[in-house]
Design a protein that fits this description.
By secondary structure, this protein is mainly beta. The protein contains 3 helices and 19 strands. It holds the Pfam family Cu_amine_oxidN1.
Length: about 240
C-alpha cells in the first residue's frame, strides 16, 4: 500500500477571539476536536484582540512533525496521520483500473463532532498504470436535504501519476469543504469580514448544521486520451 505524504508550509496559526481569557488566568485552554489542552499564558501573544498561539503546540497536539529551515525562514509541517478508526458505513464502485471506496466512521454524527469520512482508490491492474489528472485526484462533494450541492475544487492542470499493482491512495474529506458550505449556502459575499466574525463567535466553525446529507467522492482521470470517472456516495445524519 502506498501512502502519499502531505507537506504544508506555514508561518503562523491565527485564532480569532473576542474574549481572550478570564482575568487572573494562568493558562489558556485550546480544544482540539473537543479535547482540552492547556497552554501557559506566557506562550501567547495578543495583538488587536487576536490571539497568536505557538504553531508547534498546535501541530504536535494534532500528531504532526514540525521542522524549521533557519536560513530560508520556513516552517515545515508534515502530517501523514490516519487515526485508528473503523468504518460503519461504506460504498464502493470499480472499473478495470481502480476500486473507489468511500467510508464513514458513523452513520449519525452529533453536531460539532469531527466527521470522519475518508476514501481509498486502489489499483486493480497487474501492471504499472499511468494516468493524468487534476489535483487532487480524489475530490468530495456534499448535498443537503434542500438539494443544495457543493463540490470540492480541483486544478485543471494535468499531473502524471503512476500506480503499481495494489497501490492505494487515501484521502480524508477536507474540513474546509464544510466551511465553504456555510459561505455558499448563506450567499456570503464579504467573505473576509464574515469569516472573522464567524470564526470568533462559533465554537465549531466547520460543523455541518443538523440535518441529512449525501457525501460523495469522485476520481476523475485520463488514460491516454480517454477520460474516466468513478464516483460513489453515502448518506449521513448530523443531529
Amino acid at each position: 500500500m502506498k501512502f502519499k505524504k502531505m507537506s504544508i508550509i506555514m508561518m503562523a496559526v491565527l485564532l480569532f477571539s473576542s474574549s481572550v481569557y478570564a482575568a487572573g488566568g494562568k493558562s489558556f485552554s485550546i480544544f482540539i476536536n473537543d479535547n482540552k489542552k492547556e497552554l501557559p499564558m506566557e506562550q501567547l501573544m495578543v495583538v488587536k484582540n487576536r490571539v497568536f498561539v505557538p504553531l508547534r503546540f498546535i501541530s504536535e497536539n494534532m500528531g504532526a512533525v514540525v521542522g524549521f529551515d533557519g536560513k530560508q525562514k520556513n516552517v515545515f509541517i508534515t502530517s501523514n496521520k490516519i487515526d485508528r478508526v473503523r468504518s460503519s458505513l461504506h460504498s464502493k464502485t470499480n472499473n478495470t483500473d481502480f476500486e473507489l471506496k468511500l467510508l464513514s466512521n458513523k452513520t449519525t454524527y452529533k453536531y460539532g463532532e469531527p466527521i470522519m469520512i475518508w476514501s481509498t482508490l486502489k489499483s486493480l491492474t497487474n501492471q504499472r498504470l499511468s494516468i493524468k489528472h487534476g489535483t487532487p485526484l480524489i475530490t468530495y462533494y456534499l448535498e443537503d436535504a434542500d438539494g443544495f450541492k457543493l463540490s470540492e475544487m480541483k486544478t485543471s492542470m494535468a499531473v502524471n501519476s503512476e500506480f503499481n499493482p495494489g497501490d492505494e491512495e487515501i484521502q480524508v474529506i477536507p474540513q474546509h469543504l464544510f466551511l465553504e458550505y456555510h459561505l455558499h449556502k448563506n450567499n456570503i459575499t464579504e467573505v473576509d469580514k464574515y469569516l472573522e466574525e464567524y470564526m470568533s463567535s462559533t465554537t465549531h466553525p466547520a460543523a455541518l448544521p443538523k440535518g441529512k446529507y449525501t457525501i460523495g467522492v469522485s476520481a476523475d482521470y485520463f488514460i491516454e486520451q480517454d477520460r474516466v470517472e468513478l464516483s460513489t456516495e453515502v448518506e449521513i445524519v448530523v443531529e
